[in-house]
Amino acid sequence: MEDYPAHLAAKDAATMGLYKDLYNIDIGTDLTPFDLILNISSLINSPSLDGALSSISLVQSVIRPAAAWYLTGRPAFREQLEDAVRNAPDGMVVLDNVNSRVEARQSM
Predict the structure, then answer these.
(1) 83 CB neighbour count, 10 Å cutoff
(2) By the number of CB atoms within 10 A of the CB, which of 34, 60, 82, 94 ranks highest?
């Protein structure tokens, strides 16, 4: 468990390098390519299955309506997304541009 922070930092560095190489996106500082950014770092309250399942449930409560709204443009999913964002723990939703992206697509 002592090496966990080092392994996590190495994984993050590898992921950032991969996105830079493949897509020319600096995910460490450039957030413009993303419509939805969720910070899940504080959601796992214990290193256990229950802690993981709880955090997954919170994340899914935002991702499901975001994806459904983005893919279908149905107003009911927009309402679900807005409710989920409003009810999310403080700091979990870092960026939410899904509405503006769907509205721009619908106006084309």
Answers:
(1) 13
(2) 82
